[in-house]
Specification:
This protein is mainly beta. Helix content is 0%, strand content 40%.
């Protein structure tokens, strides 16, 4: 091709805007915190051939799911597919879940009646006081403190911002989650905590593009 043409459509807009034309095979775009879709075309003289698919930075939203505190009945682990971005719950009591869980819910006590509950990195499971999590190759994740805003880019991975666990001090609360193994960012919103039943309701947004911290989205 003589050049490549790149367009961008922010999530909040209905039309594409050309952002670059380059003879190279890479392009840097600063979307100012916005997520959206990219369209690329190859130009041969006056002929333009668009790619068959669009590239997207829009995080994958997963509607409300109910998790259980580690000692309560039900699944306390949660993880996202790296192919689709969709999340599902997993049992922390089964070693076979270790490759899929990105965080779990615990109160770090025996029983499920002690508040606050916490969102914790799966690698902490085998040392959890519950004694229910088998030793296995659990993922390591970083968890932020509760975020003040849901539409800002998540903090870059740093020990000053990401921890092994974070308490759910109120509802609703939002937390950034970072997967150490494969550089994926996600956001989890906790909307309900019920210590009487050990139930925790969450929503999530998973960013399919490794290393990208943009989680701006439509509610």
């Amino acid at each position: 091709p003589d050049s490549y043409v790149i367009w961008f459509r922010p999530l909040v807009d209905s039309s594409f805007v050309q952002i670059a034309e380059t003879a190279g095979t890479s392009c840097i775009h600063n979307p100012l915190g916005m997520t959206g879709e990219y369209k690329v075309a190859a130009r041969f003289g006056s002929d333009v051939y668009e790619a068959a698919t669009l590239a997207t930075t829009v995080p994958v939203h997963c509607s409300t799911r109910t998790l259980a505190e580690l000692d309560a009945p039900g699944n306390s682990g949660y993880g996202w597919s790296r192919d689709s971005g969709f999340g599902r719950s997993y049992s922390m009591r089964q070693a076979g879940s270790a490759s899929y869980v990105d965080f779990y819910v615990t109160d770090f006590h025996t029983g499920s009646y002690t508040l606050p509950y916490c969102i914790a990195s799966p690698h902490m499971g085998p040392s959890d006081p519950s004694g229910l999590v088998p030793v296995a190759g659990w993922r390591r994740s970083g968890i932020t403190d509760s975020l003040p805003r849901s539409q800002s880019p998540l903090p870059a991975i740093d020990s000053a911002y990401y921890f092994n666990y974070s308490p759910i001090a109120r509802t609703p609360s939002r937390f950034g989650v970072y997967s150490v193994a494969d550089d994926h960012y996600a956001m989890v919103q906790v909307t309900r905590v019920d210590a009487a039943t050990g139930a925790v309701d969450i929503e999530s947004w998973f960013q399919l593009v490794p290393g990208l911290r943009l989680i701006a989205h439509r509610w």
